[in-house]
Task: inverse folding
């Protein structure tokens, strides 16, 4: 009997061992727990699920989380493009240090970032005290949440745009210049479209990270229900009340959204591969 | 990195004062560089500095006092313990996954890679929650373990380890897979055809080829494992001296208005982040060609 091979034949051993271990570990650590979450939401009947996800406190947290995350990710696109441009194109003292420090938000534990940002932006902090006389409060308002989300999302756009900008063919810019384009036209009409997929990817990753972020936000947020209470915090409150079905329902909504974002990132990559022939 | 990119226009400006059409005016450059440095100082350097400033604001003595508090000490030990368990687990997984995916061809590899990346897009709080729902004492599996073997997972150290493994799950695999895919299978095939066994091939051929990428992955995995807050906070139960890791102890100190203690402990974590960044940059500078190309951030 002829058997159809799952993998292409090769002399390299160890496939069965490593493949089955990979699948086993993936199921135990990631897939079964995530599937369990969706099963737990089924404990709720439809009406109570609907009443959880239409409750005013949930809606307020949802809106706050998504709006501040989107605004922070947009801001990250603007400054991320600027930073990537300067780091790739210009030579200046301290450039390598600046380049290395971009990854700080990935390396610094979120709780540390949270208390540090709060110390700076609190009314008696270095920056907070500059704004306090004008009646502008940063910490313990949604502005503070936005600051924290900008901090943790900063590296995403920089790191996704940087390699594309580095590999950008300078002859294309020269061609645009010889054809009479002004510098700003070359940048916006010729370069920006090529950078667009990496910008979108960076935006989506920063946005996804911001929506789920907890540690750096809760210290600076103030956590007032319906005003500065983010979605992950609402899950924590529900857990502390041992209201597991409600926590599971909120988490299921968040998880579904992050899957959609993940799908969007993959679609952007497929699209850019077709459009520009690069990943 | 950008050396080659910047030589050409630089030459043009030197000679005549004429500006190359593919670069910006000198003062535009200065403004853009200044703005970048300002933004990075404001958003990144200032928070980092403020951790150390707050930690030492009442002198070195007060700073050092923090580390004689029993709760702080046990938090440090627990963090080291959790990382010492979680990182090796993900190391073994990363190597196995990379061997299966990069050295063999089978349908669905891209999908498998997406599944491995999945934990990165899950909120830490949700990551903690999924384990509570599965392994809490009133959940099916957790209840079974508790009633029959008296094993507690949630609100205990095993839960903290599990949550840490979850959030650091992809780090090592995603460093190894692209690199090992680029390297192909030629070296391994040569070794096998010369009579090496599978293990010999792995130890003497594959491992030396990926050792720096492996170190890079372990470094990032460890930094996240020691610093994880959200996932661990949800399922630790915060029993002082027992299930409190360093980031959680920072929160406890902070909420008790023990500001110096909180920032002193935090400065240890910030120091860890700095060391991580330095080693990471050194690896990129020294062995950049032996690391995965186009490493995505996380």
Result:
């Amino acid at each position: 009997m002829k058997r159809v091979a799952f993998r292409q034949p090769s002399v390299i051993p160890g496939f069965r061992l490593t493949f089955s271990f990979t699948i086993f570990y993936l199921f135990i650590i990631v897939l079964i727990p995530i599937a369990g979450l969706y099963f737990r939401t089924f404990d709720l009947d439809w009406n109570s699920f609907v009443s959880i996800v239409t409750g005013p406190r949930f809606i307020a947290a949802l809106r706050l989380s998504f709006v501040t995350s989107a605004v922070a990710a947009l801001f990250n696109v603007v400054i991320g493009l600027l930073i990537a441009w300067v780091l790739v194109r210009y030579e200046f003292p301290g450039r390598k240090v600046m380049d290395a420090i971009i990854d700080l938000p990935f390396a610094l534990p979120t709780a540390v970032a949270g208390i540090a940002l709060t110390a700076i932006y609190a009314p008696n902090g270095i920056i907070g005290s500059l704004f306090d006389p004008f009646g502008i409060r940063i910490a313990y308002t949604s502005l503070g949440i936005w600051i924290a989300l900008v901090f943790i999302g900063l590296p995403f756009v920089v790191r996704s745009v940087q390699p594309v900008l580095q590999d950008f063919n300078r002859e294309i810019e020269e061609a645009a210049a010889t054809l009479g384009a002004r510098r700003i036209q070359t940048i916006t009409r010729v370069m920006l479209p090529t950078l667009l997929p990496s910008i979108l990817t960076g935006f989506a990753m920063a946005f996804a990270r911001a929506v789920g972020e907890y540690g750096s936000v809760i210290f600076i947020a103030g956590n007032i229900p319906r005003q500065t209470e983010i979605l992950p915090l609402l899950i924590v409150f529900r857990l502390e009340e041992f209201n597991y079905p409600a926590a599971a329902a909120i988490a299921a909504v968040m998880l579904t959204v992050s899957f959609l974002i993940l799908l969007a990132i993959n679609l952007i990559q497929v699209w850019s591969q077709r459009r520009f022939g690069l990943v | 990195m950008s050396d080659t990119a910047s030589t050409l226009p630089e030459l043009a400006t030197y000679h005549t004062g004429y500006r190359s059409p593919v670069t910006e005016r000198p003062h535009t450059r200065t403004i853009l560089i200044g703005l970048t440095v300002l933004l990075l100082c404001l958003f990144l350097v200032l928070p980092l500095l403020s951790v150390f400033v707050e930690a030492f604001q009442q002198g070195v003595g007060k700073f050092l006092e923090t580390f004689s508090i029993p709760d702080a000490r046990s938090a440090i030990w627990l963090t080291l313990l959790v990382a010492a368990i979680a990182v090796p687990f993900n190391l073994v997984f990363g190597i196995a996954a990379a061997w299966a995916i990069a050295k063999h061809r089978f349908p669905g590899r891209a999908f498998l890679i997406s599944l491995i990346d999945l934990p990165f897009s899950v909120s830490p709080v949700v990551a903690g929650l999924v384990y509570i729902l599965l392994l809490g004492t009133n959940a099916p599996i957790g209840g079974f373990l508790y009633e029959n073997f008296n094993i507690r997972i949630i609100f205990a150290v095993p839960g903290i380890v599990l949550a840490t493994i979850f959030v650091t799950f992809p780090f090592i695999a995603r460093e190894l897979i692209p690199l090992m895919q680029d390297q192909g299978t030629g070296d391994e095939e040569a070794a096998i055809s010369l009579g090496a066994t599978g293990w010999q091939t792995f130890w003497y051929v594959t491992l030396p080829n990926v050792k720096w990428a492996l170190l890079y992955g372990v470094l990032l995995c460890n930094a996240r494992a020691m610093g994880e807050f959200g996932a661990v906070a949800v399922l630790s139960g915060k029993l002082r001296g027992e299930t409190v890791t360093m980031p959680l102890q920072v929160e406890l100190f902070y909420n008790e208005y023990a500001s110096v203690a909180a920032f002193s402990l935090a400065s240890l974590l910030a120091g860890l982040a700095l060391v991580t960044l330095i080693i990471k940059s050194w690896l990129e500078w020294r062995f950049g060609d032996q690391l995965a190309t186009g490493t995505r951030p996380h």
Observations:
- Chain B touches chain A through 103 residues (CB under 8 Å).
- Chain B has two domains: 1-53, 56-290.
